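User: what does the whole thing look like in 3D?
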Amino acid sequence: METVARGVDARVSGDRIVAAWFGSHRQPFKTPAAQQAHGLEGRVFLSVHRTGKHIVCELGPSASARRPLPAEDLAQLPIEAQWVVHLGMTGRLLVGASDAPVEPHTHARLALASGRELRFVDPRRFGRLEFRDLGSVASFVAPGAEPLTVARDEFAALFRGRKLAIKAALLNQNLLAGVGNIYADESLFRAGIRPRRAAGRLTRDELERLRQALRQVLRHAIRLGGSSVSDYVDAEGQRGFFQLEHRVYLRTGEPCRVCGTPIRRILLAGRGTHFCPRCQR
DNA sequence: CATTTCACCTGGTGGC
DNA sequence: TGCCACCAGGTGAAAT
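Assistant: Here's the predicted 3D structure for the full assembly of 281 residues, as structure tokens:
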């Protein structure tokens, strides 16, 4: 998500939405299609960032100018609205030529003043698109602590007294913002902790190892442009490379890169969960 | 209330 | 080749 947000930010900031088209599928829309199109048309992209797993596009006032705005003018404009995108499992945000072939499962197309288009493509339709008018609703912030910046004590407090498995706790977006299945498994491996351990029973040392592992894994993954397991790509259609660094995720039966023991797969919180039975206690 | 399960979708893969 | 079971970056409603 961080990779996607950065890519989209670099490509659309300063550009203006001259027309918005939304497909007829009901599923991906938190805000009705017509309302989103109406809210978006004419607005300028001020910036794009990530909060948790959500990508937030800050939007300026509507205007009829047909040219993209220079950066120095952008800072003067008030943030009036947001377009919040959640990619689900298979969602992609792509910026490209407006005459590029439209892929199957394209649910939204925003035509930009620069002549390009921002497109939302999502085969499984688990993604969500929401338009927020900041005149009537608050600016969007994902719940949960940010794993990249959370302090030691705050991190430990998240799990205190909890009986659920630590893996399930990591995936709970109300506790930690933005940790998904890949990075939960990868950070638990690096911290040497079994995914089924009760969250509230981890020692102070284990919690601190986990916090550090999570931060390192996320930083490393962001540096490599994310994990491209099947079709994940950034705003330019480029794949990430962190999947080459996976030590357990989707490596069932393959030897552990540390001790050679075959990686095991169990079902936990309804998700495939991968770990090394020797390295993780 | 905390926690678990399941439905929501499409597509790819691998076994028979 | 076809058919079927199973798997996949996530969540939120319903059940326990």
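In plain terms: Chain A has two domains: 2-133, 152-275. The radius of gyration of chain A is 20 Å.
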